[in-house]
Design goal:
Elements: H1 2-6, H2 19-46, H3 48-56, H4 73-89, H5 91-102, H6 110-146, H7 158-175, H8 178-187, H9 193-198, H10 200-213, H11 219-247, H12 254-266
């Protein structure tokens, strides 16, 4: 099996291979992804105490550490946190495996952009994690824990708290993949900058729904997430325009081409 993994390679653009070779490549990439998750899980479980301490820091100073109610709960919480940490650590590997399997079918020049794409996508994910940890979590926890604080003996249950934190962090990491998704969709011809500008009002409505659906709950965190989404959407328009110019996309006419480029500058 290891020799098969070592021989895994990206299929070149327009290369004709048998369906069994595609399936073998897919199998190998899934195995590599699972191995990366296994390594990340081992590292995170080894350091789970430090990770838990790190996740406890956004709690208000007046709130004690989360409590557990079951005999096995500390162990199961450690497993869940280690699994979430493994997914986060393995993100660069997972992104690369998906990119290397899919993109050669659509982009003949994918080799030159593999590492810049991988670096940008991974960096955006980790920027999203930092955004969630330093901006969204303090606002959300301050509101939710402080709401009607005089009416309750406020104690935080560990299982609920860590699920809440992990959900916020991973959601913010995925939100910051919006430019990456637009890059891929533009490369395969499924997204156009003109379409994104034309439907901006619907996108704003969708972004407001996403910001409200996340488990933050307070107005400030929703506004922070919405502002981030709006900024990422505007950046994504330029990403799509860059892909179109690079590919030499044919527009409906020379006037529309000039209008698109001018509109992109005026929308900044």
């Amino acid at each position: 099996m290891l020799s098969g993994l070592r021989s895994t390679r990206r299929v070149e653009h327009a290369e004709q291979i048998h369906i069994t070779d595609h399936l073998e490549e897919l199998r190998n990439r899934i195995i590599i992804s699972l191995l990366a998750l296994a390594v990340g899980f081992g590292l995170c479980f080894w350091q789970h105490e430090r990770i838990i301490e790190f996740l406890n820091r956004p709690l208000p100073a007046s709130v004690p550490d989360p409590i557990v109610l079951g005999v096995a709960e500390p162990f199961t919480i450690s497993l869940k946190i280690a699994l979430a940490g493994a997914v986060i650590l393995a993100i660069p590997v997972l992104i690369y495996q998906v990119y290397a399997f899919v993109m050669p079918a659509f982009d003949p020049d994918h080799d030159r952009r593999t590492w810049p794409y991988l670096s940008a996508a991974s960096s955006l994910f980790f920027v999203g994690l930092a955004f969630g940890y330093f901006l969204v979590l303090p606002s959300a926890l301050g509101f939710l824990i402080g709401f009607d604080a005089d009416l309750y003996n406020r104690q935080v249950q560990a299982g609920d708290y860590y699920s809440f934190v992990v959900t916020i962090l991973i959601a913010c990491g995925l939100i910051f993949q919006l430019p990456t998704g637009v890059f891929v969709l533009s490369t395969v011809g499924l997204m156009r900058s003109a379409w994104m500008r034309r439907h901006r009002r619907y996108a704003i409505f969708g972004m407001s729904v996403v910001a409200a659906a996340l488990p933050g709950g307070d107005v400030i965190s929703m506004l922070i997430i919405f502002a981030a989404l709006l900024g990422l959407y505007e950046v994504s328009i330029y990403v799509a325009l860059f892909v179109e110019k690079r590919k030499g996309t044919e527009l409906d006419g020379p006037e529309e081409a000039t209008t698109e480029i001018e509109a992109a500058g005026s929308d900044a």
